[in-house]
Write a structure and sequence with these properties.
3 helices; about 575 residues; mainly beta; five-stranded antiparallel beta sheet
Length: about 575
């Protein structure tokens, strides 16, 4: 229940909150004009008046005065998404009572507020917010302004679940001035500034455990204090925002991890006693940490990438391996929606075809920002075909995978890949031979399956003619391709081109050998091929599923079984392969 005093406070603050938002690029950035670029709020130190600046990077665009809170004791400290509904939240602390207030936003409208039931002990001030314990929910970080002791409150929205003090205590005069990820491990770290020497130091955390620290070589000039963190250059990395405590001048320091990498004035000095606020926390950007197969034993097809600090299911994501972008990627789950909550969420993506051999980096782009790369190795650059097959009678779905030997059958494989992906045009006999680039094999049957011999498919006529129609088996894409000498033979699970009487009459129909069929191996007169069938790949996983494709012909391969319902290729997806994790 929101008290009458708080409702009065929120009404007075409504005009402010109508202008206040959080950038999707960083869940702690203020964005007053909703242009997706971080802005800054200021609050008077003597009174409680609030003002805002709209920024374009480091450049001032516009600004104005904001309504004053009900009492000067309520200070805007930080911002985040503190509740289960992911509502944008402004976080205040009362400097007299130490109470904490969450004020909620819904787009450009205020949605009420809550004063937390628990109040920190005297002397403890909020220094930042973020997910400390890896449960996907933002927590609150405090520092005792006398002893320097740091305490974490584990939160579930507005409810305090528990807390713990950091064993390590900073040296005298070191105050926490920001919370972010400074070593790219996807975990929150702390940045301090010494109130006497101005020195800046970073503490790396592993949850609530101190894991090391480092001091910056660069030291701010006299009078400059760190007032928060921001992404001035739109890189997805935290930078330091400093303000001169006399002139009000703002400066940004670019960071390369914990190293000073340049900086500049942000805009003209701010007159008066206003200090930048609400920008203490910069939540860690997602970091890919673990790659696993999802549907198959090897890393092809759709694979799963676990990502630390992937908390927002509404994020837009894409994945690239090296320089090749995956054709499909989506968030599988975030944090508490799955058992591995200590890591974060997961992204399912299709391994792209066309990968270069050697060491590659998997990079995820989340809301327009790149994550650090996850190193992987690519040793097999051939494409792989994932066949998804539906039983004609039971409608059960099975899959198998074939490696397409582009290394020795480049022309035949290029034709198959082009048809399967829809990047090669063909004539649709079911649509008056209209030119189309729809994926060719989707919906085509395995029309000729002879027990112990072959399973043949790839005729587009099987989409539109009854199973018993004698023309099924004669159709194709409206062109043919030359016979290709590959050196491959008809071993068990071989993938080969079907053809007519002419060697150069292959096009789209193919078959899978059920057992060795060396009578089908190419024959030669010297170096000139005279017969046989071109092998261009092999089933490398779930061969038993390929052999279980519904039989449609008698054992002699001469007669269609009257009651057989052929199985359908619902899709043939072309992917690359990554070496095991």
């Amino acid at each position: 229940m929101v008290s009458a005093r708080l409702r009065h406070f929120t009404r007075i603050m409504a005009a402010l909150l109508l202008l206040c938002g959080l950038s999707t690029r960083s869940r702690a950035d203020l964005d007053f004009n909703t242009d997706g670029k971080p802005d800054i709020a200021f609050q008077s130190q003597a009174g409680s008046a609030l003002v805002y600046w709209n920024l374009n990077g480091a450049n001032y665009l516009s600004g104005g005065s904001l309504p004053t809170p009900i009492t000067p004791d309520w200070r805007l400290i930080d911002s985040g998404r503190m509740t289960a509904d992911n509502a944008r939240t402004l976080i205040y602390q009362n400097r007299s009572t130490n109470q904490i207030l969450y004020a909620y936003l819904n787009g450009a409208a205020i949605q009420g507020g809550t004063i937390l039931a628990n109040t920190p002990a005297s002397g403890y001030q909020i220094v930042g917010v973020g997910d400390v314990n890896g449960d996907g929910k933002p927590d609150i970080i405090f520092q005792n302004q006398t002893s320097g002791q740091i305490v974490f409150w584990f939160m579930d929205g507005v409810n305090l679940l528990g807390g713990v003090a950091l064993t390590a205590v900073p040296g005298t005069g070191y105050k926490v001035v920001g919370v972010g990820d400074f070593n790219a491990d996807g975990k929150l770290d702390l940045v301090f500034q010494n109130t006497t020497t101005n020195l800046i130091a970073f503490w790396f955390l592993n949850g609530t455990t101190f894991a090391g620290g480092v001091s910056m070589t660069a030291v701010p000039g006299n009078g400059y204090s760190v007032v928060g963190l921001g992404d001035v250059t739109n890189t997805g990395k935290p930078h330091l925002i400093l303000q001169n405590q006399t002139s009000g001048q703002l400066v940004y320091w670019l960071l390369n991890g914990t190293t000073f990498a340049g900086g500049d004035l942000m805009t003209s000095p701010f007159s008066g006693d206003y200090r930048a606020t609400g920008i203490r926390s910069f939540n860690p950007r997602p970091v890919p940490v673990q790659l696993r197969a999802r549907d198959f034993a090897a890393l092809y097809g759709t694979v799963r990438l676990r990502v630390r600090s992937l908390h927002d299911a509404a994020s837009t994501v894409s994945v690239r391996v090296g320089s090749v972008v995956s054709p499909s990627a989506h968030i599988a789950y975030v944090d508490t929606a799955a058992p591995d909550t200590g890591i974060g969420g997961a992204i399912d993506f299709q391994v792209p075809n066309g990968l270069a051999a050697g060491s590659q980096n998997i990079v995820v782009t989340v809301n327009g920002k790149d994550t650090p790369g996850l190193p992987v190795t690519v040793s097999d650059t051939n494409p792989f075909a994932v066949f998804t097959v539906q039983n004609g009678t039971t409608l059960a779905i099975t899959q198998f995978v074939a490696e397409l030997r582009a290394d020795v059958a480049p022309n035949t494989v290029a034709n198959f890949v082009g048809l399967a992906t829809g990047t090669k045009s063909w004539l649709d006999p079911c649509n008056s031979n209209a030119v189309t680039t729809t994926p060719y094999y989707n919906g085509i049957t395995f029309h000729r399956v002879v027990p112990g011999f072959v399973a043949q498919g790839g005729d587009p006529l099987s989409r539109c003619l009854p199973e018993s129609n004698p023309n099924i088996g004669t159709g194709g894409p409206g062109y043919t391709i030359p016979f290709e000498v590959t050196g491959l033979t008809h071993n068990d699970g071989a993938l080969a081109m079907a053809r007519g009487n002419s060697l150069n009459s292959g096009a789209s129909q193919f078959f899978i050998d059920n057992g060795p069929q060396h009578q089908l191996d190419p024959t030669f007169n010297g170096q000139t091929p005279t017969g046989g069938y071109v092998v261009f790949g092999f089933v490398v996983e779930n061969l038993a599923n390929a052999k279980a494709i519904t039989v449609t012909y008698n054992a002699a391969g001469t007669q269609v079984l009257p009651n057989a319902v052929p199985d359908v290729m619902t899709s043939v997806v072309i992917t690359g392969k990554i070496d095991g994790p």
